[in-house]
Design brief:
Distance between the termini: 37 Å
Strand content: 15-25%
Radius of gyration: 25 Å
Helix content: 25-40%
Length: about 500
């Protein structure tokens, strides 16, 4: 979709959306359009008693005969003092979905808010465009027989606003963010016969063109480093595992900033998870193509940092494996030694994500020596039982890191909830024959148990584990995206880095 910005004027074709405050108070653009249509908007509001101009309310009107407009949409803005950046972002997504669903090919958003709102007009306009762009995403590359009404119709969006040039400048970095989110969603949405360890590593290698230093470790190199937990997960597959390290050095000047160690982001990249010998039920197994969503977020984040020339030093680590059953697959009861020397008894081969992350975390700790580490993983069904499908579970060892990360999630509009490390549950992952067992002998608390297990591999550094099993993929349409991969985490981590750069 092509997005343009223009100074306020009378829209002359296509669909147009104008704002209405609570109690039916028209915004300046709505008043101008009302005059041009001979009072059509005032009459429509009066004839629709349920439309009060509250947030998220939409009232469509057929285009009046005296103007070449296909339709007018009145968008409720709520109270003048209430809207913020997230509200306009959500409104942009809602308007896109409405107009695209109506088959419109071109639309104008003329949402003027005046000087009384708690957000600048230019920022509101940029966020409207950002929300519309995020909602425009589709993954339909494999659909060959779509009917016209099944395809995206809305191809051109014009956002009318005072200081259009300022709004456009504000939108450009948001546009780059949307592109990184789309890239991440694409990786997650691809089938496992297209995205597997080797090809996902190849996608990461393309970031070198943007200035990211990329190193890919193959299986012999990982064995040499002692990464036996990660390698063992993939030993049942014909697709050999990889570990990808991506470095972005955005701070190169001498001084205190240069002496700061980078931040490390670690992603679980199980490109398909059958469960291995402890095989999953057939129902729903096709969804396990997105068990690599954590690694996709890390790759997408590194792409975004490079495209924005971000003034941060960050390293992304992605452990990539395919968990398959075969004559060479690891078995329940096997014992493996991780990169930090800890031995792990395999209680269940379907608890493979924590094994993959264990070695990836140790690699980040020892080879990168970061200030802080954040991992992302579609790790446990237990977090979905605990929090449902709308919240990311956050296990964080450091309160300062927790405050920054949770604040970043709130500012990005990605919901996150801090979870406890309940030390008593650690007893359940003791092994009679090794240092740890990868599953607990006790029932319940599965997400907490997984976090406690992985904490032993974080090297004592400030560390956050984000369990995105309930947020990486949506079973329904969302305000900012269709059913499917969400790209959750990219925007939160960008906001976290932005806030951290300010502290440094």
């Amino acid at each position: 979709m092509k997005i343009n910005f223009a100074e306020p004027d009378q829209p002359r074709s296509g669909a147009v959306a104008v704002g209405v405050w609570e109690e039916g108070v028209l915004t300046p653009a709505a008043r101008r359009l009302d005059e041009a249509t001979g009072g059509a908007i005032t009459r429509a509001v009066a004839a629709a008693p349920r439309f009060k101009g509250k947030k998220d309310e939409l009232l469509p009107i057929v285009g009046p005969a005296n103007l070449a407009l296909s339709r007018i949409v009145l968008a409720g803005l709520g109270k003048p003092e209430s809207p913020d950046a997230r509200a306009f972002e959500q409104l942009g997504g809602k308007l896109f979905a409405h107009l695209n669903g109506a088959g419109e090919e071109a639309a104008t958003f003329a949402i003027e808010i005046g000087d009384g709102a708690p957000i600048a007009q230019s920022e509101a306009a940029a966020q409207l465009a950002f929300g519309a762009q995020l909602r425009s995403y589709r993954f339909d590359k494999y659909k060959t027989k779509q009917k016209p009404e099944q395809k995206t119709s809305l191809e051109t969006l014009t956002v009318m606003t005072a200081a259009a040039n300022t709004a456009e400048r504000a939108f450009r970095p948001l546009e780059q963010t949307a592109e990184a989110v789309f890239f991440t969603r694409d990786l997650v949405a691809e089938p496992a016969n297209v995205i597997y360890p080797e090809t996902l590593a190849a996608e990461a290698e393309k970031l070198a063109k943007l200035g990211v230093k990329v190193e890919v470790l193959d299986e012999p190199k990982m064995r040499e480093l002692g990464m036996n937990a990660l390698v063992a997960v993939g030993q049942g597959s014909a697709r050999l595992p990889r570990l990808v390290a991506m470095e972005w050095h955005g701070v190169k000047a001498a001084g205190d900033a240069e002496s700061k160690r980078p931040l490390a982001f670690v992603g679980k990249g199980v490109t398909f998870d059958t469960g291995g010998i402890s095989i999953k039920p057939a129902a729903g197994m096709a969804d396990m193509k997105w068990d690599m969503a954590g690694s996709a977020v890390v790759i997408g984040l590194m792409r975004l940092l490079a495209s924005r020339k971000a003034r941060v030093n960050a390293v992304g680590i992605a452990g990539l494996v395919e968990n398959m059953p075969s004559g060479t697959a690891q078995r329940p009861g096997d014992i493996v030694r991780a990169m930090n020397g800890l031995t792990i008894e395999i209680g269940n081969t379907d608890a493979e994500g924590r094994l993959t992350l264990a070695d990836a975390l140790v690699y980040a700790d020892k080879e990168i020596e970061p200030d802080e580490m954040v991992d992302l993983a579609t790790l446990t069904g237990a977090i979905v039982i605990a929090l449902g499908l709308g919240l990311t579970g956050a296990f964080i060892t450091d309160d300062g890191l927790a405050n920054r990360l949770l604040g970043a999630a709130e500012s990005a509009g990605e919901k996150m909830w801090r979870m406890p490390f309940h030390e008593e549950y650690k007893d359940g992952i003791k092994s009679d024959v090794a240092d740890l067992n990868n599953i607990s002998s006790q029932r319940g608390g599965g997400a907490i148990v997984a976090a406690l297990f992985m904490r032993d591999f974080a090297g004592g550094r400030p560390w956050a584990h984000l369990d995105i099993a309930g947020t990486a993929f949506s079973e329904r349409e969302l305000p900012l995206g269709p059913k499917g991969a969400t790209g959750v985490g990219v925007r939160t981590l960008l906001a976290y880095l932005h806030g951290l750069a300010g502290r440094r």
